[in-house]
Amino acid sequence: MVPFLVSFALVILTVVPTRLPGFAQISPSWPMLGIFYWSIYRPDLMPLGGAFLIGVLADIVADTPIGINALLFLLIRGIVVGQRRFFLTNAFPMAWAAFGVIALGSLGLNWLLFALVQGHAVDPQILLWQYVILMGLFPLVTVVMAYTQMVFLKDV
Amino acid sequence: MRIKALGATGRLTLVRALFHRFAFAFLVCAAFILMVLGKNEGVLIERTRAVVLDVLTPVFDVLSRPASAVSNSVNFVRDMTNLRTENERLKAENQRLTHWHTVASKLSNENTVLHQQLNFVPEPDPAFITARVIGDVASGFGQSLLLGAGARDGVRKGQAVVSGENLVGYISQVADHVSRLLLLTDINAHLPVIVDSTHTRAILSGDNRDMPRLDYLSGNANIQVGDVVVTSASGAAFPPGLTVGTISGVSDGVYRVSPAVTRDQLEYVAIVDYGLGGVQSFTDKPPPPPTRRGKGGDAKGVDPN
């Protein structure tokens, strides 16, 4: 349950008001970081259904067209689990770079699906900022989740 | 033959693998089905959204409090450092305001006399609900706030949300205990407005950037940077004259409006029932006819989609 709960907490984190001028417009997709981490280290505890559910919750909370994040998180989980050996054998910077590629693809697909469902496209420039922040947060969130894994899932 | 050769464990693994592959395809299909259902704004999807938001409201409520505390302390430190300049600014402002106070009381007396002479029936003050901001949704895909008041408190879809005399946005989603305030910067927010100084009519459209744009400007506008933009009576959505923001600039022929209220200033907002239609989607049922204002008018709003 821990991976699911941590990812769920990240969904909630997307709507906690920071009241920091400027930051609000560009807050990143926190749960994506959770799905990515747990798919590498504990895919058994973050099954497809879990990723799907986190995605649906993220869509409901963020008021994005329902199903988009669900699909993206499913795909991320699928790709990461497929390439798990790569992530487990390579050093952190490589995982970071690989996350960069996956996150970019995910944002691109999100942009496309949003445009298809909503009928109008958003300015890619804002998404670029969102991407930069997401990449910056990656090491921080990874450390927090590694710590969570050590504390709660040491013996599991 | 090959399956037989796998043995019991092998067969089990095969079935498991097939199941996993099937589960992936099934869930991907489910995601697409949800997208299609959600696009049609089905009752079921809307109801599910409302129920989930209701269940999560206590969590949002608790988590938004430390955020307020942190923000208050940051403001406190900032205020302390700016004390001297702030004091000078306030002195100057006070001087200006004293002058305006004299003018206002003179005008108020004159207004009372004129009202009496005309037997003017004053409009009732609109009913309002004050709600706390408990969630802030901000991404390149949407700009909204979650408010800690819902249908049980009398919040209805389409109602205006103001802070002071400034329009912040309108209610786009209502659950029992929580509602969603669509900010004017959201890509789905569209609102009829007037540029006050030139009386130019336009539609204010958000695009998820900090400053919404002005579309469909009427006439040859001589709009200047700094001009005030207010709500218009068109569409019978909101009462005219609520401040929306000021013109911040023009690029490629598109005017941008700097909203009068920025989201990071908001802790409490007022959800106001002006007795008008509010901004409604065409797919929504029409609101009940206005009872408080005699003029009536059809309550058709602007399609936010």
Which overall shape of chain B is indicated by the principal axes computed on the Cα atoms?
elongated
The DSSP helix count of chain A reads 7
Task: Estimate the mean pLDDT confidence of chain A.
Answer: 85
Stretches of chain B where pLDDT is under 50 for at least 5 consecutive residues are 290-305
Strand content of chain B: 25-35%
Q: Helix- and strand-based class of chain A?
A: mainly alpha
Strand order of the largest sheet of chain B: 1-2-5-4-3-12
CATH class of one domain in chain B: Mainly Beta
Order of helices and strands of chain B: HHHEEEEEEEEEEEE
Biggest interface found: A-B, 50 and 58 residues
**Average pLDDT rating of chain B:** 81
* C-alpha geometry of chain A: globular
Q: Count of DSSP E strands of chain A? A: 0
Specify the biggest β-sheet of chain A. none
Helix- and strand-based class of chain B?
alpha+beta
Low-confidence stretches of chain A: none
Quick recap of the structure?
In chain A, 74% of the residues lie in helices and 0% in strands. With 156 residues, chain A is mainly α. In chain A, 45% of the residues are buried.
Describe the protein in words:
Chain A is globular and about 50 Å long. With 156 residues, chain A is mainly alpha-helical. Helix content of chain A is 74%, strand content 0%. Chain B has a domain at 127-273: Rod shape-determining protein MreC, domain 1 (Thrombin, subunit H), CATH 2.40.10.340. Chain B is elongated, with a radius of gyration of 26 Å. Residues 290-305 of chain B have low confidence and may be disordered. Classes of the chains: A mainly alpha (156), B alpha+beta (305). At the A-B interface, α3, α4, α6 and α7 of A face α1, α2, β1 and β2 of B.
